[in-house]
What does this fold into?
Amino acid sequence: MKSERMEMLEGLLKSGISPILLENFPASIFTDAVILDAACDKSELNGHYEETEFVPPEWYKKLEILDEKILVISNINKIPDLEQKKFVEILKYKKVSTFELPKNTVILVTANNLEENKINEEVYSLMAHI
It folds into this structure.
């Protein structure tokens, strides 16, 4: 079963389909990725001013310099239903504040035990589920 899921993930990644919801995959398997904890404060998803310049969040800057642009939002179903909606802009429009995610960014979202901890319907509808 696990090898089938890995093959499915590889196929989706090769075809450029993103975002992808990975059920019971630990975020730690992605060693060269930006991992954003779903429980982060909403302010971490917005740009901010440094003196007179509007700049993206720190995690975005790290994503820009990676060879393979992989953003992992970990444990989305561990936060309340309404709080999950803070990721809609990233999942639907592939942007944060006024900054579009770098070209070819793959968005992966991890969740564990979906039977007990649900995902917001709108958020879920924006992802391919493996």
